[in-house]
Design brief:
With 475 residues, the chain is of the alpha+beta class. It has 3 domains: 285 residues, no CATH class; 110 residues, no CATH class; 58 residues, Arc Repressor Mutant, subunit A (Orthogonal Bundle), CATH 1.10.10.410. The strands form 4 sheets. Strands 1, 2, 6, 7, 8, 11, 12, 13, 14 and 15 form a 10-stranded mixed β-sheet that branches. A 3-stranded antiparallel β-sheet has the order 5-4-16, with no helix packed on it. Strands 3-17 form a two-stranded antiparallel sheet. The termini are far apart.
């Protein structure tokens, strides 16, 4: 039996507001446990919630970016469940009447993942297990009440790789919009994955398993791969898939059962009596729309058209809004936009990945100057490769480094000709091979010249002189 996976994601996006969803407490990450709390997020008697307007505006931004329908009237509900990190004994969320409906996210191969809804809610606190010598569990309520957007997809994802790409796309978009930092390691972006298997020829889905609280792209892929394998083995041995919630153990790359899966009725939803209906007017939407920047897909298309670069380079350069702005700043100082793209994507980003530095450690005008020196034939690509780590380490401009290190390319034809003559003289055997038609030995001669000049000879001039002399007596 050929089986295929059917995956839906529930993605939680923690919003970068200064205060929580229903109270003025700070949302800053990493503070002393339970220091960002007040009567509202501690659920003390008589404390009443007040909605955070900016959180709603951030939701409108994302809805507009993804083509969602924005409900003119939506409602907050109480979702009842009892965890130590949920002091009220319920979560203020949206159930029957969410703020944002529909929308799509387009993946790299053009596949569109449709959204069911995006709703606004508050986060729970955090349980910390096995902390300290006493091995007890503790509760930190700093996160309780932080504003969230929960994005629910249709069950259209078919592989762990697609799930990971979907989440990367969401992180890229929310960062462009400036509504979330998307840091999965801090819990700002996390997801629950719902997965079932079905025969290829069938449209009937099997029992659904939910994997909770996945907080890295690798964990998402590994958890789904394990779960696909586990479910396949059960189905092929005629065992039933239990509808349940499971957790992922990243140390062993396995999922394990947490509890039987709840249905919506078990949360005993009912309208939140302490909050009015949320009304979003056309005027409000229009005001928010003015603040939406150029989004990554649009920027990528523009870069290819405006700067004449490849789809690949455009994809790399638009990975973040900051990098895209940096590239355009470089292009303002250089006419060779394609070469600038190549230098950033291959040289500069390789250094930042290795050292952990930000790409802005090398000033845009320095990148543009390296490109200009290459165009003039003053330096080779090999010398350019040497310049980037030096610029990142010292902060010096390329001209200063070239002068200090003696890296200027040799473009004097007469000087290169003398070196070529000396190399040909001691390699007559390879000269004969070339003239007999074995032209691949040209690479040997180029390498010898470069070795002799420590990589400083202008490759174009080297090739011209070599070909001229090697072909001189040929025939």
């Amino acid at each position: 039996m050929q089986l295929e996976a059917v995956i839906g994601l529930e993605t939680h996006i923690e919003l970068s507001t200064k205060s929580k969803m229903f109270c003025p407490c700070s949302t800053d990450f990493g503070a002393k446990p339970n220091s960002h709390t007040c009567p509202v997020c501690l659920a003390l008697p008589g404390a009443l919630p007040v909605m955070n307007k900016q959180a709603v505006e951030y939701g409108i931004k994302l809805a507009l970016a993804l083509g969602c329908d924005i409900s003119p009237v939506s409602r907050f509900d109480r979702k009842q469940y009892f965890y130590p990190d949920l002091p009220k004994g319920y979560q203020i969320s949206q159930y029957e009447y969410p703020a944002f409906i529909g929308g799509t996210v387009e993946l790299s191969e053009g596949k569109r993942i449709h959204l069911t809804r995006i709703h606004i809610e508050e986060d729970a606190g955090k349980n910390i297990h096995g902390a300290g010598a006493d091995n007890h569990s503790y509760v930190d309520l700093n996160r309780a009440g932080v504003p969230l957007l929960e994005m629910v997809t249709e069950p259209e994802i078919t592989s762990p790789e697609e799930a990971s790409e979907f989440l990367r796309k969401i992180r890229q978009i929310v960062r462009y919009l400036g509504i979330s930092d998307g840091n999965m390691e801090e819990g700002s972006l996390r997801c629950d994955a719902n997965i079932s298997l079905k025969p290829n020829s069938s449209s009937t889905l099997g029992n659904k398993v939910e994997i909770k609280n996945l907080n890295s792209f690798k964990h998402v892929e590994k958890a789904l791969r394990f779960e696909i394998k586990r479910q396949k083995e059960l189905i092929l041995s005629d065992q039933e898939i239990a509808q349940e919630t499971r957790l992922f153990n990243p140390h062993e790359s396995v999922t394990y059962s947490m509890r039987s899966k709840e249905d919506s009725f078990e949360y005993r939803y009912f309208p939140e009596p302490d909050l009015p209906l949320l009304k979003i007017s056309e005027e409000w939407i229009a005001e928010v729309e003015k603040t939406i920047p150029e989004l990554p897909d649009d920027k990528k298309t523009r870069f290819v058209k405006q700067y004449g670069i490849t789809d690949y380079d455009a994809g790399v350069l638009t990975e973040s809004a900051e990098l895209a702005d940096y590239y355009e700043a470089c292009c303002k100082k250089s006419a060779n936009s394609a070469q600038i793209a190549h230098l950033i994507s291959t040289e500069l980003l390789a250094i930042t990945k290795k050292t952990g530095q930000d790409f802005s450690v090398v000033k845009p005008e320095y990148v543009a100057r390296v490109s200009e020196l290459m165009d003039k034939g003053s330096i080779s690509i090999k010398i350019a490769k040497q310049l980037f780590p030096m610029m990142a380490e010292t902060g010096d401009d390329p001209d200063s480094i070239i002068k200090k290190k003696g890296l200027m390319q040799i473009s004097d034809s007469s000087a290169i000709e003398k070196i070529v003559d000396s190399i040909l003289e001691v390699n007559q055997e390879n000269v004969t091979k070339f003239r007999a038609g074995k032209t691949k030995v040209l690479g040997f001669f180029v390498g010898e010249v470069m070795k002799k000049t420590r990589g400083k000879a202008n490759p174009k001039i080297v090739n011209q002189i070599l070909l001229k002399k090697l072909n001189a007596d040929n025939g």
